[in-house]
Amino acid sequence: MAPKIIRTVAALRKEMAPWRAEGLTSAIVPTMGALHEGHLRLVREGFTKADRVVTTIFVNPKQFSATEDLGKYPRDEEADVAKLAAEGVNLVFAPDPGEIYPSGFVTAVHMEGPAKAGLEDKFRPHFFDGVATVVAKLFIAAGADYAMFGEKDYQQLQVVTRMARDLGLATEVIGIPTEREADGLAMSSRNRYLSKQERQQATAIHKSLTQAAAKIRAGGKPQSATRAAIRSLTTLGFKVDYVAARNAETLAVPKTAGEPLRLLAAAWLGTTRLIDNIAV
């Protein structure tokens, strides 16, 4: 059975109100569409936590800078809804930009902390304020008990978690491990842009992170391990934006031994930018 498609916040609240009245719990899975197996994993995990699942499809213009082509972002609502129907999703919230950002909209959520870690924010300084603003609006609109986010976008996960905590929002953010292809490549909507040869090369990112993590666990210094990963990827033809070892919660540069660590990487392969991360 196809899920009901909702276009307005008022309609979303109207549909979800009876669930709460019946004592049913709900989970929200925010997406920008172009759904793949990683997104569907979030939906399945949502059903393990809640009675009902709402998936949002909204290409958020506030996440795009003037140099990024918002118009070229892949959109296929019909295919996305078909995939969500197969997973039993109860509602799809697919608003127009004017519904989320009506005329005269001037409010934004400004993030520090994990949003200013010198990782993704170094290359897309506008990005996390845009993410935090739209996610806060979605959380407030839906009032869901849980929100499912993938660990592949690890900095985003930490930003959203901190935002919800700091603003006292009732929705609990749940991080879900990265869904990977059989050869280790993190699933991403961007993988479709890789040529056949690039697709084979792309596995090197996960391999280099795995090797760096092993060196650190064996007693090596994080900085030395990440430098070696950068050299390896560069030799293989990647243009590396960063490979970094950070505190797993704050994303700050680690200062003491024994801190929980996360290795994060971003690199270009041809015209495609890939990101990945793993725990140490």
How is this fold's topology laid out?
Elements: E1 4-6, H1 9-21, E2 26-31, H2 37-49, E3 52-57, H3 77-86, E4 91-93, H4 97-100, H5 120-123, H6 127-142, E5 146-150, H7 154-166, E6 172-176, H8 196-201, H9 204-217, H10 222-235, E7 239-247, E8 261-269, E9 272-279
The CATH superfamily name of the largest domain is HUPs
Structural category is: alpha/beta
Oligomer: single chain
In the CATH hierarchy, the third-tier topology of the largest domain is known as Rossmann fold
Rg for CA atoms: 19 Å
User: What is the makeup of the main sheet?
Assistant: 6 strands, parallel
Give a nutshell description of this structure.
This protein has 280 residues and is of the alpha/beta class.
Explained architecture:
- With 280 residues, the chain is α/β, with parallel strands linked by helices.
- The chain has two domains: 4-176, HUPs (Rossmann fold), CATH 3.40.50.620; 189-275, Pantoate-beta-alanine ligase, C-terminal domain (Pantoate--beta-alanine Ligase, Chain: A,domain 2), CATH 3.30.1300.10.
- Helices cover 38% and strands 19% of the residues.
- The chain has ten helices and nine strands.
- A six-stranded parallel beta sheet has the order 1-4-3-2-5-6, sandwiched between helices. Strands 7-8-9 form a three-stranded antiparallel beta sheet, covered by helices on one side.
- α6 crosses α7 and α9 (204-217) runs antiparallel to α10.
- The radius of gyration is 19 Å and the shape is globular.
- The mean pLDDT is 96.
